[in-house]
Amino acid sequence: MKNVDDLIASAAELADRGLSKGEIADELNVSRETASWLVERSGAATEPEPRAEPDGPDDIHVDWNAIGSGGKRLTYVGRALADLLMETNGEADVTVGIEKAGVPLATSVSRELETTLGAYSPAKHQWDEGDLEDLGGGFSRNFSPVEGRDCFIVDDTVTSGTTLRETIDAIRSEGGEPLACVVIVDKQGVEEIDGVPVHSLINVVRVGEQ
């Protein structure tokens, strides 16, 4: 992905495949607002023209395809994420991956830390129309339960922290204890969410922001 037109084209392709706006946000590693803007722009013309209107939402697109497309590279990054978690957070029973991108990363982390593997599907995957707050996510029954267990949470990026907060709340609602979160890229410089520390391999800082 090199420019906004590429993102608009990708959003159009994903929308044509039937993905919700929330899933598009997840696939492109952008915020919900940016996903909506991209989908709306993709329907404006067959080929996006140079933008004469104001810029879209303030966001940063993260493309980690070079990691995700290589099994060995994904394993190495998973080891690095596991190392971040081991430094200061003790031991967990379950490593919970946030679907979709967080699950393969969590698989590598859980192997490294010798935990079981959980998977959480956030509400944004159901989001297309209506109020996102009225929708709910859920844990996959095909993976490890979190009830009564200490949990690490793994995702690829932090955009606003909403999905991590939702997952933390969901674990607590199920009777589990979230110990820490870890991601590849943090767009916001988040250090903790609801008392749970957040670790990242890369922290993005917008230079010149007031």
UniProtKB/TrEMBL annotation:
<dbReference type="InterPro" id="IPR053401">
    <property type="entry name" value="GcfR_halob"/>
</dbReference>
<keyword id="KW-0808">Transferase</keyword>
<dbReference type="GO" id="GO:0004588">
    <property type="term" value="F:orotate phosphoribosyltransferase activity"/>
</dbReference>
<feature type="compositionally biased region" description="Basic and acidic residues">
    <location>
        <begin position="48"/>
        <end position="60"/>
    </location>
</feature>
<feature type="domain" description="Phosphoribosyltransferase">
    <location>
        <begin position="64"/>
        <end position="188"/>
    </location>
</feature>
<dbReference type="GO" id="GO:0010468">
    <property type="term" value="P:regulation of gene expression"/>
</dbReference>
<comment type="function">
    <text>DNA-binding transcriptional regulator that functions as a regulator of central sugar catabolic pathways.</text>
</comment>
<dbReference type="InterPro" id="IPR029057">
    <property type="entry name" value="PRTase-like"/>
</dbReference>
<keyword id="KW-0328">Glycosyltransferase</keyword>
<dbReference type="InterPro" id="IPR022854">
    <property type="entry name" value="GfcR-like"/>
</dbReference>
<comment type="similarity">
    <text>Belongs to the purine/pyrimidine phosphoribosyltransferase family. GfcR subfamily.</text>
</comment>
<keyword id="KW-0238">DNA-binding</keyword>
<keyword id="KW-0804">Transcription</keyword>
<dbReference type="GO" id="GO:0006222">
    <property type="term" value="P:UMP biosynthetic process"/>
</dbReference>
<dbReference type="InterPro" id="IPR000836">
    <property type="entry name" value="PRTase_dom"/>
</dbReference>
<protein>
    <recommendedName>
        <fullName>Transcriptional regulator GfcR</fullName>
    </recommendedName>
</protein>
<feature type="region of interest" description="Disordered">
    <location>
        <begin position="39"/>
        <end position="60"/>
    </location>
</feature>
<dbReference type="GO" id="GO:0003677">
    <property type="term" value="F:DNA binding"/>
</dbReference>
<dbReference type="GO" id="GO:0019856">
    <property type="term" value="P:pyrimidine nucleobase biosynthetic process"/>
</dbReference>
<dbReference type="Pfam" id="PF00156">
    <property type="entry name" value="Pribosyltran"/>
</dbReference>
<keyword id="KW-0805">Transcription regulation</keyword>
